[in-house]
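During the reporting period, we have paired protein sequences with C-alpha cells. One record among many follows, to show the layout:
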Amino acid sequence: MLPDPSSTPPRLALAFGSSFFGFATHFGFLRELLAGGGRPIAVAGSSAGAIVAGLYAAGLGIEQLEAAFTRRDMCAYFREWRMPLRALGTLLGWRGTPAVLEGLHLRRMLHELIGERRIEDCTTARLHLAVTNFRTNRVELRDHGPLVDTMLASFALPGLIVPCRVEGEMLWDGGLGCSAPVEQWIDDPNVTHIVAHSILHDVQVRAREGSDRYNFASALLASHQLTADELLRWKLELARRAGKTVIAVETITPRPRIGVPLTLRPPKPWPEHARDLMALGAASARRVRR
C-alpha cells in the first residue's frame, strides 16, 4: 500500500515487466496510479513494459498514450510485406533471419510520437530500459542512448522482431534475462518505494493447474517463467533488506490478440479489446492504492 501523497510523498520507482503485447495492461495500471496521486520519479521497463516506460518518461500525456495504445489499425504495425519469406527463413534457421518482423512500422510510429529523443533527455521520470546483450552474455539496464532504438531492442523477442544495433552493440529482448528491472534502485537513496507490475496470462494459470499435461514446449516456457519469477523475487527481497518499501503486483489477463498474422483476431475491435486490458491493469493499481 502506498502512503497518502498528501502526507509524506513517497519517492516512487515503477517497473513494468515483460509480457506478450502487454502494453495496454501496463498503461491501464500507470493511468490509475497517476489518477490516485502517485508520481514516479523513476520508471523502468522490459520488453512490452519498455514501450510504456519509454513513452511516459519521454513526456507523453495520458491522452496521447491512450490514443497510441488504442489505434484501430494496430495490427498494421505488425504486418510487413516480407513476413512470409522471413517466417520461412526463421523456421528453417537461415543465418541472419532471427525473426519474422523487422519492426519498420513500429519504429515509424514511435518516431512520430517522440522523435529523436535520447533516454537521458527524458524529464518526466528517470528511465532505465532492459536489453539483452548476447555478445557480453549480460542483461543491461540502459539509462542513455537513442530512445526509440533501445525501446525496440527491449521489445525484440527472438522469432518475432529482429534485434537492434544500438551504439555498436546488437541488443535483444530485455525480458530474456530481466522480467522486471528493479535492481538499479536497490542502492538508490532517492527511491523509497518500488512498485513492480507484472502480467500473467490466464492460459499460463490454467496450464499450471494442469501441469501434468505439459508437453516439451509448454514445459520449456514454464521453466523460463519460473526462473524469471524467482530472479525477480530475489531482487525485490534485496530491495526490502536495503530498506525500500516494495510492492509486487501481478495482473492476470487474457493473452492480447493483435490480429492476423501474429495472433488470432481480437474478440472485439482492437480499441475495445485494449480498453478491456487497460481496465484489468487499472484494477490492480487500485489494490496498490488501498
The longest helix spans residues 216-241. The chain is about 40% helix and 20% strand. The mean pLDDT is 92.
